[in-house]
Amino acid sequence: MKVEEDFQPKIIGFLCNWCAYAGADLAGVSRIQYPPDIRIIRVMCSGRIDPAFILEAFRNGADGVLVAGCHLPSDCHYVDGNFKAQRRIAILKRILKEFGIEPERLRLEWISAAEGDKFAATVREIVDQVRKLGPNPLKKTQKVPGQKPIKIPIRPLQETYRK
Ligand code: FES
Q1: Ligand 1 atom having least distance to the Cα of 44
Q2: I want to staple 16 with a disulfide (CB 3.0 to 4.6 A). Which of 67, 69, 109, 116 is the partner?
Q3: Can you give the residue range of the structural domain that contains 32?
Q4: Model pTM?
Q5: Rounded mean pLDDT of 136-156?
Q6: What is the mean pLDDT of residues 16-43?
Q7: Residue 4 falls inside a structural domain
Q8: pLDDT score of 105
Q9: Total domain count, the chain
Q10: What's the pLDDT tens digit per position in 38-58?
Q11: CATH of the domain at 61
Q12: Within a domain: 1
């Protein structure tokens, strides 16, 4: 696959407050280098991440999405939020394919508050992966004159995956 040299991917990172966000903070405090292509959104738990948030990110032009939370099986501060996230992401990866978005653009990772180095490595990996894939294919269809932009029916999906 051709890698676009000047392509700067836009990655949205949904990080749980207690583990992954603290891990990102540790990476910063420890001055561990990682690409600046990630925009972080702090959530209280990975189980709080509605699949609609991820679809909305892709619809608004994100080239990749990272979801990170506390390690399985028992680190989640809300008991089973990480299990919920795991189930939802697995289903969402299949849904993304239907909209022509490569599932590799979405990554789920467990990162503890002590794993600043793992956070940095994960960001490097997702940026490399997304660089290889190129820009979000939704962006192209939305720019072609006369071609209807792909519409993601977020509301009905929301109902389906909220469980
Ligand atoms: S509190 Fe971190 S995944 Fe639930």
Answers
A1: 1
A2: 69
A3: 11-161
A4: 0.87
A5: 68
A6: 97
A7: no
A8: 98
A9: 1
A10: 999 999 999 999 999 999 999
A11: 3.40.50
A12: no
Pocket residues: Cβ below 6 A from ligand 1: 16, 18-19, 45-47, 69-70, 76-78, 81-82
Structure tokens at 33: 């280098």
pLDDT(147) > 90: no
Asked if residue 5 belongs to a domain, the reply is no
pLDDT tens per residue across span 62-96: 999 999 999 999 999 999 999 999 999 999 999 99
Residue 37 lies in a domain: yes
